[in-house]
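Researcher: Please translate sequence to structure tokens.
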Amino acid sequence: MKKKMSAVISVVMLMILCFCPQASAAYNDLHEGYATYTGSGYSGGTFLLDPIPSDMEITAINPKDLNYGGVKAALAGSYLEVEGPKGKTIVYVTDLYPEGAPGALDLSPNAFSKIGAMKDGKIKIKWRVVKAPITGNFTYRIKEGSSQWWAAIQVRNHKYPVMKMEYYKDGKWINMEKTDYNHFLSTNLGTGSLKVRITDIRGKVVKDTIPKLPENGTSKSYTVPGHVQFPE
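Model: Translation complete:
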């Protein structure tokens, strides 16, 4: 009887292992794909990260990898370590590569030339998300048209990709929707300073305060300094 029970338990355990869903990939897993190059992405990129220095190494990223974990523009503003035939470099994600296959990047020429031959036009690459090589605290971009009634807020200068942003009102944290253009949206945010809670791709959470929003919609975007940064 004991042998039969043991056999039954073994079969059940085997079935559980076989039918359990696979664990999701880690944010910094190694991706494989290809790289092309382009001169765009410094101004007017999909993620509205202007101004971007003209000598910075940047990239556009394919849609599948951009929307990590089902979050729109999850890897916008992140940094990637990219390896090609000639070596490695680190690039800043500023734009979308709409026709790119999973794993594909469209690099700036100065980044492409570090890891491959320009004459090839397209090379095999491997890449992963890395901690941003930055200093200081967050900066917040308040999009034009924002007010106490409707606002779109972007987090900049973050060490790790930003997945979630919430604000505190009436005793509770309210989730803000992340957009394809890398801003967090909400309505009726109130007339006082805005307490926010921001979560990175590792699940690390920090809290900050943003000065009160304009009473009426702004005609231009503006930035305000933050007071915190994600932990190491």
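Researcher: Any highlights?
Model: The two ends are 55 Å apart (CA to CA).
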